[in-house]
Amino acid sequence: MILDDIVSKKKITLEKNEYCFDALKIAESVKDTSVLDFYEALSKDGLSIIGEVKKASPSRGVIKDNFNPVEIAKQYENAVDAVSVLTEEHFFMGSPDYLKEIHKEISLPLLRKDFIISPLQIFEARELGASAVLLIVAIISEKRALREFLNIVHGLKMRALVEVHNERELETALLAGAKIIGVNNRNLYDFSEDINTTVRLSKMIPDGVLAVSESGIHTMEDIEIIKEAGVSAVLVGESFMRCGDIAKKAEVFKRAYEGKN
Asked: Is residue 163 among the annotated active site residues?
């Protein structure tokens, strides 16, 4: 399974000598620095959008030719509410450096999107400028472990987008105390997409927990389905990467959510 391959490769990457830094030193250096509130940015009225800076994926190959992460992020700045930055190097052709450079250039909350298996990656995300990190329940499947990761995230004044794919994972996320749930419409086993995953799981997400629909969002009809399910936040990557005008595409999504053609 591709997820197992990604996690195995991530373990090797983290074991390399060059991936070494002092978590306590980082915690000390950032304790007095402010962090943009990822939750608050997505909690406004209307449709909230997380735009993703994404070069490639295992299922699609290269999505964006002539990839310039900083320029893409700048296009997002006045079009969306937060930016997701792929930092996984091998399967998504991302880099932690992308997050670091984007943080210098734009003023939106940033999500580090990676396959986090170690608390060190959370500390690193904070140092790179992230306001939030992605925690995938398919990887961190034990409630106690997920709760410990969430405690570290909150201790660093960050937020966590906790990603789920099914009812069992959602239950684990909620019991661990997740306040932002990302429902991934992409099946991690065969990479098929079904936006009805959001429809099905959103019924189980209680008030006070923010739901974000991820993946497979391409059309006005997709946005209408999400709205009907009571979800008001989306994470969109490929659709933005393949369009010619990010701001225009984002406006189309917002108007669809408002019921305007």
From this structure: yes
